Amino acid sequence: MDEKTTILFVTSNLGKLSEAKIALKQFGLNVEAFQFNEEIQEIQSSDLHFVAADKLTKAVSIVKASSDKLGVMVEDAGFFLEEYSGFPGVYSAYVHKTLGNQGILRTLNGVEKRGAIFRCVIGIYFNGREIFFEGSCKGQVSKKAKGKNGFGYDPIFIPDGGDGRTFAEMTSEEKQIFSHRGKALKKLRDYFEERNQSPTSNHGSES
Ligand code: IMP
After folding, report:
1. 93-126 pLDDT per residue, tens
2. Which of 3, 115, 149, 187 gives 20 to 30 Å between its CA and that of 27?
């Protein structure tokens, strides 16, 4: 893997950026945020994959117009509550912005069914191709918000298989062992490792 390979992650979310940097650094990939003036307009769809694919197409056209770096990455994630048949899902950003974690906890006050799943789809563009990697993480919504690390719903989410701490009580490295993003990034690493190529090399086996 070329130490200098850079992936431009089209995101304004510093938490996502930092997690991707940590996960891909050990693999010799440098992740940088690609900043541009306007947010990419997300399409309305109940399918994360569809949203990520649309975002990637838009991101690639913007990045190509302003940079000669070829590795482009986007991500779309959602928080799916069992009690509400998966809601907020693709509306997670809006619900988090309006209700916040305390509001979510209030709606689940007295509710025993506290299961939740994080899902994410990472889309990456290289060598003129778009490839997608999915990750999910099952867990429970905590009774109280706990921890200061991470972002978004991290203080109210306890992953299955952990020691009862929320994501926000874990280090970024610990979170990635369980998290939707950690799993999708691992699939991305495995994909390129299997092909022994970097996302920006020109000798890929895909056509
Ligand atoms: P989006 O992919 O940025 O649209 O994410 C949707 C919502 O889920 C936002 O409110 C994010 O903050 C939240 N979210 C995405 N990934 C995570 C995570 O790993 N932990 C906590 N919240 C997350």
Report:
1. 999 999 999 999 999 999 999 999 999 999 999 8
2. 149
Ligand 1: lining residues by beta carbon, under 6 Å: 13, 75-79, 92-93, 96, 118, 150-154, 167, 179, 181
- Domain with residue 189: its CATH number is 3.90.950.10
Indicate which residue's Cα is closest to atom 15 of ligand 1: 77
Residue of minimum CA distance from atom 7 in ligand 1: 93
* Beta strand segments in 53-128, E: 71-81, 88-89, 115-126
Specify the pTM.
0.89
Q: Which domain holds residue 115?
A: 3-194
Distance (Å, whole) CA 116 – CA 108: 12
HEC-encoded secondary structure of 25-55: HCCCCEEEECCCCCCCCCCCCCCHHHHHHHH
For 143-174, how does the pLDDT look when each residue is reduced to its tens digit (9 = 90+)? Answer: 999 999 999 999 999 999 999 999 999 999 99
In a domain? residue 204: no
Q: Is residue 201 part of a domain?
A: no
Q: Is residue 200 part of a domain?
A: no
- Mean pLDDT, the chain, rounded, equals 87
118 in any annotated domain = yes
